[in-house]
Amino acid sequence: MQPSAPRLPARERILTQAKDLFRARGYHNTSPDQVMAAADVSKSTFYYHFRGKAELAHAVIAAHERDYWTERLEPTIGDRARPAGERVRLWFERAAAALEARDCRGGCPFAILGLELANDSEPVRQQVHAILQAWREPLATCVADGIAAGEFRSDLPPETLADLLIAQYEGALILAVTGKSGEPLRLAADLLPRLLAAPGT
Hints:
By secondary structure, this protein is mainly α. 70% of the residues lie in helices and 0% in strands. The chain has ten helices and no strands. Helix 1 packs across helix 4 and helix 5 runs antiparallel to helix 10.
């Protein structure tokens, strides 16, 4: 009989459960009591680590950001050993696979929490905006690599095309979640490298 995996520390359990609940149910529809029950922690333990739900939301967004860079952006867009078009394609394809693994429940956690809290919490709005703006650098680098290799069109600045990729990514996620299918993300994965391609390639 194999030994069971060690239990996560209380703070990590709270964050893990809050990430899942906020994504599936939304911030306003998730209570601290629900997070405590899911994480199997007492009220005193919860408030030892987080002063309240708003502070938990900041921590959840920060945790999503760390996970997203290491699990999604860096292995795809940040992999400079691959051609730029393949990096873009992989970014969207892996998003489709991850969404389908969750039965198409929830979308981009930054968009979900950002839209839900943008009018209620200026700090959260600023935090999410900064995260999405930070995506521009690796995406613009990817586009610039594609331009330098003669793979991508050169008539628009890399930063402009990076902004368009972010908008396409978030829009495709919305269509995928509401349509309960990863197909919009896979369609973008197929079409975007071709739409970015330099003439004659």
